[in-house]
Amino acid sequence: MKKKALIFGITGQDGAYLAKFLLKKNYIVHGVKRRSSSLNTQRVDDIYLDPHKKTNFFLHHGDLTDSLSVLKIIEKIKPDEIYNLGAQSHVGVSFDVPEYTANVTALGTLRILDAILTLRIQNKVKFYQAGTSEMFGASKPPQNEKTKFYPRSPYGIAKLYSHWITVNYREAYNIFACNGILFNHESPLRGETFVTRKIVMGLCKIFLEGEGKLYLGNLYAKRDWGHAEDYVKAMWKMLQAKQPKDYVISSGKQYTVKYFIDLVCEELGIKIFWKGKGLSEKAFWNDKNIISIDKRYFRPTEVNSLMGNSSKARKELKWTPKHNIRSLVKDMVTEEINRINKLSI
Ligand code: NAP
Ligand code: G4F
């Protein structure tokens, strides 16, 4: 019998990569999408077929803020594995909508876990929770499973609730539930307002179309960036292990936002130079100012330095990433150029 997976957050970056990975593993994949006034399924359109035809991929309307929909979908699908990737996942935006962020990103997890109990399927289903390095926040790197949590945003705090409620339901009710504590992971499908994709899109537009200028915030934050394709494999591996545990997933290397910009320029074969300091720091290309700082992109409290130690996952799950920072940048830039070329046909 084919295994059935249910993915909350199917329309996001990781949802799309995970669905494609599980379909290749011969799963039947069900995804939960929320209603929106314009189409939000672009990332999975390539695997979606008319449900009247033979397909292993299905979409259902639902919302993590709506307990009834969560309960009904789980009851209807009876999944073997549930992946909770749904979240208001933007750290900066979480300062603008903290209550909503808590409702989706914290209580959404509780709603799934409690539906599992209500339906009495705690011995049948495995649960993955999308935790984050943002929970470490101000704790010094390298961060691993034993590092103290010190979140610095409403998003990080909501995710910390989800982390602990997952641990609690595992211990209290014996649910096979795992927290993946994933460090930043990117791809050509990354949301356009996260810094890597914003930089790639902005610079491709400037260099290939001669248009626009990029405004950024803190150039000196350090992040441990990996590729989403590698990270969704780790999610699946956690649910195939003998025991449910929590794992850090990371590349083990960190770079500044400014270094990421330099790598993108290198990949595009362009030389830029930097002038000035603080809010007056600027980047130039052929004397043209192409990047400036805008303080609106600074956060009230920043996470300055993230770098994970994922040796537990590498040893116990035999997880090894294929990508490094250069292959990530190459993939993102290549796909962006392809997109621009398709638009101009
Ligand atoms: P993403 O692209 O922002 O996707 C988030 C998904 O959640 C989208 O499908 C979104 O739907 C859905 N969602 C938002 N609100 C919802 C609601 N009320 N009900 C149901 N679904 C809702 O995020 P991602 O980068 O794929 O990340 C996946 C998960 O991993 C998230 O939980 C994120 O917080 C976590 N995480 C990400 C990273 C990273 O670096 N990418 C690192 C650590 C942890 P719409 O498409 O309709 O908005
Ligand atoms: O790309 P970011 O918005 O990602 P951030 O805040 O690290 O969060 C991402 O990774 C987390 C894992 O650690 C996930 F849990 C979370 O869901 C999300 O996927 O920002 C990265 C850094 C920050 O320090 C930010 O201040 O880039 C800095 N930055 C500088 N200028 C900017 C900008 N970030 C954004 N989004 N936009 C800017 O213009």
Question: Describe it for me?
Answer:
The chain has helices at residues 13-24, 67-77, 91-96, 98-118, 154-173, 195-209, 228-240, 257-268, 311-316, 325-343; strands spanning 4-8, 28-33, 57-61, 81-84, 126-132, 176-182, 185-186, 214-216, 222-223, 226-227, 247-249, 255-256, 273-275, 282-285, 288-293. The chain starts with a strand and ends with a helix. The radius of gyration is 20 Å and the shape is globular. The protein has 2 domains: 4-188 and 225-252 and 307-321, NAD(P)-binding Rossmann-like Domain (Rossmann fold); 195-219 and 256-302 and 334-343, Alpha-Beta Complex (UDP-galactose 4-epimerase, domain 1). Helix 6 (195-209) runs parallel beside helix 8. Helices cover 39% and strands 18% of the residues. Bound molecules: NADP nicotinamide-adenine-dinucleotide phosphate and ligand G4F. NADP nicotinamide-adenine-dinucleotide phosphate binds next to helix 1 and strand 5. NADP nicotinamide-adenine-dinucleotide phosphate binds at residues 8-15, 32, 34, 36, 40, 63-65, 85-89, 104, 130, 132, 182, 184-185, 191.
Features:
Rossmann fold; 7-stranded parallel sheet; 4-stranded mixed sheet; alpha/beta; 345 residues; globular; UDP-galactose 4-epimerase, domain 1
